[in-house]
Design brief:
mainly alpha, 132 residues, rod-shaped
Length: 132
């Protein structure tokens, strides 16, 4: 699917289209009436037919384009964002586990150092090591 937008393709409103509150399809009709004036009686009938038929066609085109995008370029965008989120969460998780292990080791190290010092002092004094 190309990234270029066909300027003559009326399926998707453009930012340059005149907006009419409530229904963007009415804006296309209003712009068309301003650009090429026609008899007012024919405009109302054309507007009703345009809204009923073109709304369904617009929905179908948009659905098709969305599905095409989601199975192509959109899938790549989603995959990249998921990978980035996974990497970010992995880094956070590694940091969190490292802090938890550090705190647990700090507590254990105090006991290990105390026991090693007692054993060393006992060995220097010629006494048998004390059982902890």
């Amino acid at each position: 699917m190309s990234d270029e937008h066909d300027i003559h393709d009326a399926s998707i409103p453009l930012l340059t289209d005149t907006l009419v509150l409530g229904n963007p399809l009415r804006a296309r009709v209003a712009v068309a009436v301003e650009q090429a004036p026609v008899a007012q009686s024919g405009t109302a009938a054309a507007e009703d037919g345009l809204l009923a038929h073109d709304a369904d066609a617009l929905v179908e085109r948009l659905r098709g384009r969305c599905l095409t995008w989601l199975t192509g370029d959109g899938r790549n965008v989603i995959e990249a964002r998921c990978n980035a989120a996974l990497q970010e969460h992995t880094h956070w998780l590694v940091g969190h586990v490292s802090r938890e292990i550090g705190l647990a080791l700090e507590t254990e190290l105090k006991g290990w150092v105390r026991a090693a010092v007692r054993e060393e002092l006992a060995a220097r004094a010629g006494q048998p090591p004390a059982q902890s």
